[in-house]
Design brief:
By secondary structure, the chain is mostly helical. The chain is built from 5 helices and no strands. It has one domain (2-121).
Length: 127
């Protein structure tokens, strides 16, 4: 069940953040890396609340919310760095369109983040 909910919520957040990145960078004229930074901050907070309350709601009830938030931010930062790398390589170095990084942002990053979130941020409590 967590994987299904992660896919629904996570892909919704991923698509919304990728679209926001593209709108800010392409239509808004912001630097692509700055656009991604702004989007990251907003959607990291949305993701923590949504995944904590819905996706992994039956997990890690005994853990402190502050330590869980720190772990979630660490995982999210790793996704952010990976996405920044996609932007740097595909837009800045390869001189591609600002939409090119959206493809690996949607097809690569969420799968890595699910594993970290499932087993480190919101681990299942022993029965």
């Amino acid at each position: 069940m967590p994987l299904a909910m992660f896919l629904v919520i996570g892909m919704g957040i991923t698509i919304a953040s990728a679209a926001s990145y593209w709108l800010l960078a392409d239509r808004g004229g912001l630097d692509p890396n700055l656009s991604l930074l702004l989007v990251f901050v907003v959607f990291t907070l949305i993701g923590f609340v949504a995944h904590g309350r819905i996706t992994f709601s039956g997990h890690a009830r005994s853990g402190a919310d502050s330590s869980r938030l720190v772990r979630y931010i660490v995982v999210s930062l790793s996704g952010f760095v990976l996405n920044e790398l996609f932007v740097f390589v595909l837009v800045k170095q390869a001189h591609g369109a600002v939409w090119w990084p959206v493809v690996p942002m949607i097809l690569v990053t969420p799968w890595l983040l699910f594993g970290f979130n499932r087993f480190w941020v919101f681990p299942e409590e022993p029965k």
